[in-house]
Amino acid sequence: MLDHKLLEAEGILVLTPQAPLTSDDFQGIAAEVDPYIESKGNLQGILIEAESFPGWHDFGSFVSHVQFVRNHHRHVKKIAAVSDSEFLTIAPKIASHFVQAEVRHFAFGDREAAMTWLKE
């Protein structure tokens, strides 16, 4: 389960994984984000906040995640991963090779610093 909230005024999507990610999670996010991108052009940023990364429900969920990234990465300026999870600590380094957005890691608890960076 992936909780999400679009802060429309700031153009920031906040993602908070609560349980293994599913294909439905990415469909729900796309249903909310796609109209925003269509009307505004881009998201200023995405904030991923998770003390630990719960992984994916199954391989189909992983594929849905990859497809979501492929379809949306050109419309996101920055991505902030706020986590102490080993996976989310190294994920920005890996992701920077596949997405156009600037990606940065912040320690869990540094949400405010991450939001400030996303708004810059």
TrEMBL record:
It comes from the Bacteria. Gene3D superfamilies: SpoIIaa-like domains. This is SpoIIAA-like protein. It comes from Symmachiella dynata.
